[in-house]
Each structure stands twice: as C-alpha cells, then as structure tokens.
Specification:
342 residues, two-stranded antiparallel sheet
Length: 342
C-alpha cells in the first residue's frame, strides 16, 4: 500500500511541476482576455462542442478579475455502447449475449469576480444478458462533486469541497453460489465535506489540500449486516452493526487534470487521498478515476475509464464465507459507440 501511494505521489508531483511551468507563461495577453470578459455580464455560455477549453481559467490580473461579471460555462460528454451476439446451430459452440452501457459526465462552472463554483456529475450504468446467467450488472455509478473557491492570489483559492457517491441498483458477487448480495442505492453511500485551499496554476491542473474533512458512510439496508448462511455478523464498509452510518474525520488531498492531449483526445483524471485522524491515520484511502475520451466524429467516440480504489475499512470475503482483509479494487471499462459532446 505504501508503494502504491508513493508511486501516485510521484506522478502527482510530476504533473504539478509541469503545471507550474505552464502557469508561469503569463505575458499580459491574459489581461486583455480578462478585459474582454469583463464586458460580458450575466452570460450563459452557448452549448458549443465540448473540447475541454470551456473550463480554461487563465491566470489573470486580480484587479481585472474583480471586475468580471457572473458567467456560466457548461459542457459534458455522454454515450451509449451496445454489443449483441446471436448463435443458431453454431457448430463451434458459444452463447448469445446482449450488453448495454450508458455514461454521462457533465461539468458546470460558475465564475463571478473572485468567486469560482465548480460542479461535476458522473453517471454510468451497464448490463449484460446471457441465457445462462440472465441479466447481470457490469457498471453502476453516481458521483457528484461541488467545489467553491474564493481567489486569494493569482493561483490560490480558499476552498470548500462537497462530494457524494453511491450506485443505482443492487449489486452481487457472482463468483459464489448462491450469489452474494453486496450493495444497493445508499448502501453504501458516501458523503463528504471539507475546507482547505486550492492551488490552480493554470487552466487544466489543480491541487486541493484540506486539513479538515468529514466523511460519512451510509448503510441503508440492514440485510448487509448479517450473513445468514454462515451465521456471521458483518461490518459492511466499516459500518458497525446496529448503526446506519460511520463517521470519519481527517485530511484530504485531491489532484485533478482536465485537458486536451490532442485535438479530439481529452483526458480527465482525479486522485483523492484521505487519512482518517480517528482510526489508523497511516492507512491512506486511495480513490483514482481517469477518463480518456476520443471523438471520431460528432456522433461516434471511444471511451476508456479506469477506477482504482483502496479503502482499509472495506474487507473482502473469502470463498468459504470467512472475513478477509482489504484489497486494491480496479475497474476498467472500454466503450466504442454513440457519443456526443456538448
């Protein structure tokens, strides 16, 4: 675990160094852009094709920034991928299947003088159907993030961050027979709130540091506390039996990258590191999400998303039903299909 955190930290430092180099390219042209923006009052940006530039926030003169009026910048990407296999009298064998997945990422940025309010919504759901296994869930995600910042200097903001995440439907472990019930909407559900500071040296990189973050884990289903088959009382996702919520308080660091690598290739990456002051602060929770989106044309695209998660409070079950330890969780989704950016 320490090696993983060290590796991620080195990558973050490298990105930060690159960001600082880009952020130092301030030659006064940005002030001219700020003056033009200052003439726009109460503007909602048109829904132009999303290429990442909608969220550019160049480093500008603070006096000019204070004269800028309110402005919304909106953009996102959504897509649906589907695959279907049908076999009739196929001598080589096999089984027909139908797979469907939908995803939506949407950003809304509000700026008004020194104020900056950045919001992000991520939704995903996927299913796979075969005659043998019927319908199984392959992907399920609800994530919402909202960050408010007040500009203190050219690159530093006093910030507050709120996050929420859960899933839409019931989830099961299909590797055991019978299948094992694991999750549903708000079981678990995660809610977090913290205050700190954000370093934003350029338009595509930011580092949020919070020494005071509260995180709550909700369990809205008592069935997850009991394994009737093995007569065991469980502590799902670190929540104590008889309670429906676990409180944590600690430090949080978030590193975000949101930029175009090429004209039609966009990268979004978010790394969250959390240390709980109240219980084993040396065991750092890691949550990393990355989305690489390539636009073929206005209606076709390729998406590659990767989720990596380590939480010391999430214990895994062994095949015999006994309780094991924590593990690194990795989910990768590659989709080619209908995609639109707006």
């Amino acid at each position: 675990m320490k090696k993983i955190v060290l590796t991620l930290s080195l990558v973050a430092l490298a990105l930060g160094a690159t960001a600082q180099d880009d952020g130092q390219q301030y030659d006064g042209a940005q002030d001219a852009a700020a003056q033009g923006a200052a003439a726009t009052q109460n503007v909602v940006a048109p829904h132009a094709p999303f290429d990442g530039s909608q969220f550019d926030t160049p480093t500008i003169n603070l006096d000019m920034a204070n004269n800028q009026g309110p402005r919304w910048q909106l953009g996102g990407v959504g897509g649906v991928t589907m695959s279907q296999v049908s076999l009739t009298n196929w001598a080589a064998g096999g089984e027909g299947s139908l797979a469907l997945e939908a995803m939506l990422n949407y950003d809304a940025l509000y700026t008004n003088r020194r104020h900056r309010w950045q919001n992000r919504l991520e939704l995903a759901y996927g299913m796979n159907y075969t005659k043998t296994h019927k319908t199984r869930k392959t992907n399920d995600k609800i994530f919402l993030s909202s960050m408010y910042g007040y500009r203190l200097t050219r690159t530093w903001y006093a910030s507050a961050l709120a996050t929420f995440s859960t899933q839409f439907a019931q989830g099961y472990d299909y590797n055991v027979n019978p299948k094992r019930y694991l999750s549903r909407f708000m079981a678990p559900g995660y809610l977090g709130f913290g205050v700190g500071a954000t370093w934003r040296p350029n338009s595509w990189f930011s580092a949020y540091i919070s020494p005071a973050t509260w995180r709550g884990t909700f369990m809205n289903d008592d069935r997850l506390f009991l394994d009737a088959q093995n007569a065991m009382t469980l502590h799902p996702y670190g929540v104590e039996p008889g309670r429906n919520m676990r409180h944590e308080f600690g430090a949080n660091v978030r590193l975000e990258v949101n930029r175009d690598l090429l004209h039609d290739l966009h990268l979004y990456s978010r790394l969250d590191l959390f240390s709980n002051y109240l219980h084993k602060p040396q065991n750092i929770d890691v949550r990393w999400y990355a989305l690489l989106a390539y636009r073929i044309n206005d209606w076709l695209g390729v998406n590659l998303s990767v989720n990596m998660l380590y939480d010391d409070d999430i214990k895994f079950r062994r095949p015999d039903g006994s309780l094991g330890g924590s593990k690194m969780q990795i989910k990768e989704v590659l989709g080619i299909g209908l995609q639109t950016q707006f």
